[in-house]
Amino acid sequence: MLQIKDLDASIGGTEILRGLSLDVSAGEVHAIMGPNGSGKSTLAQVIAGHSDYEVTSGTVTFKGEDLLELEPEERAREGIFLGFQYPVEIPGVNNAILLREAVNAKRRHQGLDDVDAFEFLKLAREKMAVLGMDPQFLNRGVNEGFSGGEKKRNEILQMAMLEPSLAILDETDSGLDIDALRAVAEGINALRSPDRAIILVTHYQRVLDYVEPDHVHVLSDGRIARSGDKTLALELEDKGYDWVREAASA
Amino acid sequence: MPTEQENLEHLVNRRYEHGFVTDIATESLPPGLDEDVVRAISARKNEPEFMLDWRLRAFRMWREMDEPTWAHVHYPPIDFQAISYFAAPKSDEDRPKSLDEVDPKLLETYDKLGIPLHERARLAGVAVDAVFDSVSVATTFKEKLSEAGVIFCSFSEAVQEHPELVRKYLGSVVPQRDNFYAALNSAVFSDGSFVYVPKGVRCPMELSTYFRINAANTGQFERTLIVADEGSYVSYLEGCTAPMRDENQLHAAVVELVALGDAEIKYSTVQNWYPGDEQGKGGIYNFVTKRGDCRGANSKISWTQVETGSAITWKYPSCILRGDNSVGEFYSVAVTNNYQQADTGTKMIHIGKNTSSTIVSKGISAGRAQQAYRGLVRVMPQADGARNHTQCDSLLIGKECGAHTFPYMEIRNPGAKVEHEATTSKISANQLFYCRQRGISEEDAVNLIVNGFCKEVFKELPMEFAVEAQALLSVSLEGAVG
After folding, report:
1. Which of B13, B116, B355, B394 is deepest in the core (most CB within 10 A)?
2. Could you tell me if B271 and B465 are in contact, meaning their C-beta atoms sit under 8 angstroms apart?
């Protein structure tokens, strides 16, 4: 589904990703771990198409298409979803309206009619119940005055409504208490399916207790230093990131 | 002092000198302004003596006044002697014969605004029997109004048909000497609208200049007077969302509202005058005086406006809260893009007891536009229990625009409750990226954010107007980002 080859990317002239390669197939869950500054968030932003990041070399293909040629909204309509590490507040814009616009943008892209307003609300309420969200959140401004946990749940709600083929969740688990973490993990697990892939960008092993990954990669200095199965995450928890760094430079 | 007869002769001779044809009814006056011009305007309109006197008094006051310079706007000096103060209506030969002859860019905008096909020709000034359905619509409309006893006609007609009402109320809210442009308007106004709603009558429909067929070519000095007698209600819609072009650069209108005891006037405006090109050239200067007088107890006046046009706007729809328990409201969305400048706001003058006022001002600036909110809340010593709440928000799009807030408060009653809240925010790159990552295009994202920002004002507009206003905003801000 997603092939990244020898990707170099920089921000403001500073090189962050240096020759990163990654293959993600449908049905898989990949966890990307690594210390601060290793390039995890940059990878997520580059896949989503943030214009602050410049791709200097390498290729990214998504469902066989050159992803780097597409605008961010086109990538989204093609099925790429990024759960933001710090979801931005958009005061005054109704959460339900943004969500419905997003759903409709994708439907129009697929040649479908706009979603029926009643159906949309019904579906949104169902998904919110699963995530333990008060339906009142639909009537509030997008992320306006939401707590950290509420923002993350809202990201998962959007993901659930948009049903992406590739979901990248950038530290969605950070700053969550145990109840919120469980709810978010449940939301992610509900989305797991054979025709969908998920990339979990995380700092901690904790979330992997709830969402079991098929592959774990450790990022160091802008490239994947080590890959393995879920046991790699446990080993990492035990030995710390210095272990990877030493192994990589050795 | 020359006699009036001599003046008229002088005028006739002078026109002859300039070689104008003698068809007095349709011809334009040469540029320039003096007493003769004022007399000529009044004579052409066949006005009674009192109107001419009133105009002349205004003209003499205007001559003594200086052009105001305090507003936060910049423009080259206006040569008032270079303006023609009476323009004849365009003859059909000068107008486009069909929509095919109309600027395609204009038609494209109509399309974006969703203006029905049959209205486009009328708006673009096409010379076809510009009647379409509107004549029959207007006729039924007039019948309904007259059944209710509501007078709704052009100002000229009111001067002829209802001189006693005009005489009683004209200038009673905005006196001739109120300000430079109001004085000029008083001297030379060409036409406008007149509304009188009798005691206890709830006007059966929203009044809109759209239905006043003879509203065409009211010209650059428009005069509107609305009187709501005791216990009556009227909602008035001014303007339309379609872009309005006009060869007159200076527009100085005056609007006066009078609400007697227990009466309510709701005045909604959508203003979309030509703002000039992307470099700011050729746009309209809109210097307007709008004021409402809550003259009776328990009366209410509410101004709602959506302003996207004009190169320069200078406008402060105000309320004088004279009657006890009277209520004044001001809801405004002003959009400035490219090189547009706006200095706009309101004045709430609390005189009666337990008067209350609400101000909600939403300013959106994009491009290199400059926008200022200027608001005055004055509470007089006798206005016990006066309350005001002001909410003043600015939204900036891009880096080169500016928003400025000038709130003035003059509180002379220690018991008054006055609150002022102001915010300035920007549409951030992160907000836009967030929306785009959800599949929403940048332009749609800007519209979402802007409409969210304005919704408190939009909900005050009559339903169809609110929908049009949203479309108008997105057209006005096209290309503001990126």
Report:
1. B355
2. no
pLDDT reported for residue B103: 67
Q: pLDDT digits over B73-96, tens only?
A: 788 888 888 887 876 555 555 566
- Sequence-distant (6+) residues with CB within 8 A of B115 are B123, B241, B242
What mean pLDDT is predicted for residues A206-225?
91
Residues of chain A contacting residue B435, judged by C-beta atoms under 8 Å apart: 90, 98
Highest mean pLDDT among A28-42, A71-85, A191-205: A71-85
pLDDT in tens, A62-101: 999 999 999 999 999 999 999 999 999 998 899 999 999 9
**In the predicted structure, residue A174 carries a pLDDT above the cut 70:** yes
Q: What one-character-per-residue DSSP string does B329-347 give?
A: EEEEEEEE-TT-EEEEEEE
Q: Check which CATH number belongs to the domain holding A121 and give it.
A: 3.40.50.300
C-alpha to C-alpha distance for B395 and B450, rounded to whole angstroms: 8
The number of residues in chain A equals 250
Unique residue bearing structure tokens 């003046």: B7
Per-residue pLDDT, averaged over B177-198, amounts to 93
Rounded to a whole number, what is the distance in angstroms from the first to the last CA of chain A? 33
User: Smallest Cα–Cα separation from B439: which of A54, A76, A10, A172?
Assistant: A76
Strand order through the sheet with A80-83: A80-83, A166-170, A197-201, A29-33, A215-220, A223-228
Mean pLDDT for A4-12 is 94
Contacts of residue B433 in chain A, CB cutoff 8 Å?
A: 50-51, 72
Residue B437 with chain A: CB contacts under 8 Å: 48-49, 72-73, 75-76, 81-82, 84
User: DSSP letter at B88?
Assistant: P
Interface of B with A in 412-441 (CB under 8 A): 425, 428-431, 433-441
Residues 6+ away with beta carbon under 8 Å from B140 = none
Tell whether B481 lies on the interface with A, counting CB pairs under 8 A. Answer: no
Quote the number of domains for chain A: 1
